[in-house]
Amino acid sequence: MARPLLVQDEVSDFAAAVRAGLAQPQKVIPARFFYDRLGSELFEAITDLPEYYPTRTEVGLLAGHAADIAAAVGPGRAVIEFGSGSSVKTPLLLRAIAPATYVPVDISAEFLALSAAALSADFPGLPVLPVAADFTRPFQLPARAAAAARLGFFPGSTLGNLAPGAAVDLLRSFAATLGSESWLLIGLDLAPGASKSAATLEAAYDDAQGVTAAFNLNLLHRINRELDGDMPVDAFAHRAVWNAGLGRIEMHLVATRDLAFEAAGERFAMTAGAHIHTENSYKWTADEARLLARASGWTPDQLWTDADGLFSLHLWRR
Ligand code: AVI
């Protein structure tokens, strides 16, 4: 099951976030609450959609530049993946660079155990040392990984779901965890440019089959299921829009009529056309991404993009 990190699933946290977010003049529900079991399955389905280019483009970049990555970082690395690993991207990287050890890091021990077992079966000789930790803060690596040269891996453009300040904080935290003389391989979705239109981006977040709409609306079903809500899900419409000024795709749930409902023990009202802001997905030009690296203690080393200018894979060092 695909699940990007930056997820904290405690119900009390969810209830408090829903109460606080729906009470604001511009209603908001943080995107980390998308990923219950159904939401994680819907996200996995999104990654296979024809319109959602990031996953297959990043896989293509990893496959096409595996030898370049291996040549840059050298053999015998400890690979530290921030997240519990992807069944396609992680093996591509590990096969290319012949690491000494692999350390997947995830806040969920359950996800970690599942993915570490699958990976160990594929790489019988490789020591796999899972760490259950919140990687948004620095944490201690297993001794065996700390003793080797280290390569951090953060694919999937997950960084894009953070506002720039929080993105810098996370990258600084990676730097503190990985220590000096380490590398970071990170996938970032590109902003529109010469060959990529805003329409391509908007379609990736509003697909023809309605899977992304179901993913967005699942937040309301989740409130009804888990927080005794009576939100009229049918009265909300999914909307994805490119905000050029802020450099991000925004997802919203728009009320199609005047509404009153209960969620997490409180009553709320919305007028037709009002919306709940559910996600930001920041997109970075190559230069902005390099600036992000420098602002967080990393030195840009190499950059690979696809021929259509859709996605970027960065190798940074420190
Ligand atoms: C997890 N994250 C990188 C995805 C993205 O593209 O921002 C989440 C997503 N939201 C809608 N579609 C995919």
Notes on the structure:
By secondary structure, the chain is an alpha/beta fold. Helices cover 37% and strands 23% of the residues. The chain has 11 helices and 12 strands. It has helices at 11-23, 37-46, 53-64, 66-73, 89-97, 109-122, 143-147, 164-178, 198-204, 211-226, 286-295, and strands at 78-82, 101-106, 131-132, 150-154, 183-189, 236-243, 248-255, 259-263, 266-270, 275-282, 299-305, 311-317. The strands form 3 sheets. Strands 3-2-1-4-5-12-11 form a 7-stranded mixed beta sheet, with helices on both faces. The protein has a 3-stranded antiparallel beta sheet with strand order 6-7-10. It has a two-stranded antiparallel sheet with strand order 8-9. Strand 4 (150-154), helix 8 and strand 5 (183-189) form a beta-alpha-beta unit. The longest helix has 16 residues, at 211-226. It starts with 10 loop residues before the first helix and ends with a strand. The model is unreliable at 5-10 (pLDDT under 50). Bound molecules: N,N-dimethyl-L-histidine. N,N-dimethyl-L-histidine is lined by residues 4, 46, 54, 156-158, 160-161, 205, 212, 279, 281.
